[in-house]
Amino acid sequence: MNLSAYVHEEMDARHEHKNIGKGQSTDHDRFRGHFVPFPGTQVLNAETWDHFTAAVNGYGRRFGGHSLLDLMAQDVGAQLSAVHDCFALGRGDMRALLLVRHTITRLSGWALMAAITALSHCAPHPDIAWSERNWIPQRIRNQVAATFDWSPDELLHMIQGLEEASDEGFSVWERGGYGQSFVVILWDSPNLCHTLSVALSTACRKFNSDVAFRTLILYQYFLGIKEHDADLVSVVGKFMSKWPKLAAHPLSTELVDILEEHGWADTF
To answer: What predicted TM-score, i.e. pTM, was given to this entire model?
Structure first.
């Protein structure tokens, strides 16, 4: 059995998850009540020795940090494996999740979707089915979420990736989709409305109409939540007047109709 994996990846998370609602535990308590079951089929002998040594060497490469370097790989499959490793290791060492956060613009495709999902476990996501297998200790979640001060370029990179996934036919902008996880990691970002307005202008200049229009939807969504007196009909109208790309989008009329009737539009 890999006891190192248990200590580094699962022990703290399992302990905190098991003691939800039982008060604050001490550092001494975190070592109590742990056990690792040894399946009877996992016998170490001459026949299993090669598998054992391969597992030891593989874990050494993984926990030693070599696999995490694949966050910077060109191959999306390698990136995806690295994101998964970072999520596992990040449950015991926040630095692994911080690597995902700070390399977000280097990730693409499903690796980017996996990164957004992993980071959303550090934010107040309302729809995660928490268990011992995905629980992240609160102290780690807080430290990682404190870095969610997204730049316009980071926002646009993620929005573009989400739109590409949507174009491929995957459920993105709906509850339970990758888009919800994205919204969750933006929620407490400082100066988010200003950042989104800058990102929107950049999107209108440099990105396609779908990315620009999605950024507009996100901008009015958060502006309506954070500034209750905002006149979103006027705000959106000004952007559409300035940027024909927005006004020409197939959903522009529907967005304006929703705003005129309800004063605000959801992201989904």
So the answer is: 0.80
